Amino acid sequence: MNQWWDQWAELGEMFGSLILTFGVLSVILVAKQESLGLNTNLKRRLFLGLSVPCVVIIGLIAAKGFGGHGQINPAITLMVGAIKGHFQEAPAIIGFQLIGAIGAALLFLACAAFVGQWSKLNTMFKFNNQGVIKTTGMEFFGNMFWLIPISAFVVALLKGDINFYELAITAAIGKIVLVGAFEEFGAANFNAQIWFGKMIVTAVSQKGKITLKEFSSEMSGLVMTMAIGIAFGYVAQPFFNR
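The structure assignment produced for this chain is given below.
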C-alpha cells in the first residue's frame, strides 16, 4: 500500500481488532467466573494461556481475510512503519484498529447486559493501580519477550521469506509466554486496542471514577508498549534493507 489510505486494508484491521478485542474481553469475563472452577491462579493461567492465543489467531486471520495487513496491534503497525522508514499509513490503520476496539467494547457491554453479567462488571474490570514504575517495568519486560521474536518475523514477512500464517503462529506462541509469565499484571495490556477496549468497559462499569494514580499507570503502560514497538522497528530496519 503506497498511499496513506486503502479502504480494504483499514476495514480489515477494524474487523480483526473488533474480533480480537471482543474475544479477549469475553475470555477475561469467563476467567473471572469462580463458579466455572477457575478459582485458582494456576487454573486461570491455563485457561487464559490456551484461549487468548486462539483469539489472537482468529483475529489475525479475520483481519487478513477482510483485506487487512493482519497487524491488529498499533505497536506492530508502528514497528512496520519504522522498518519501512515511513509512517504515512500508520494513522489510518491505528485509527481503524481503535474504532474496532470501541465497537468491540460496546458489543461486549451489550452482551454482558443480555446474559445478566452487567452487575458483576464493576468487580471484574478495574483500573490498574500498580503504579507507574511497576506498570512501565512490566510492560517493558513483557514486550521484550513478545516483540523481539515478532520483529524478526515481521522483517522476514515483509521480505517474503515467510508467509503470514507462520507469523500468526509465532504471535500466538508469544501470547502464551506473555499470559503464562505476566497474567497477574495484565498481559492483555500488551496490545493497545485491547487496552483501549478494557478501558471503555472499565470506565462504564466504574462509572468513570478513576484516580490520577490509576490514569497515570494505565497511560504509562500504553506509552511503553507503543515506544517499544517503534524502537524494535528501527533496530530491525537494517536487516530489512539488506
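Interim note for the steering committee: The chain has a mean pLDDT of 85. The two ends are 21 Å apart (CA to CA).
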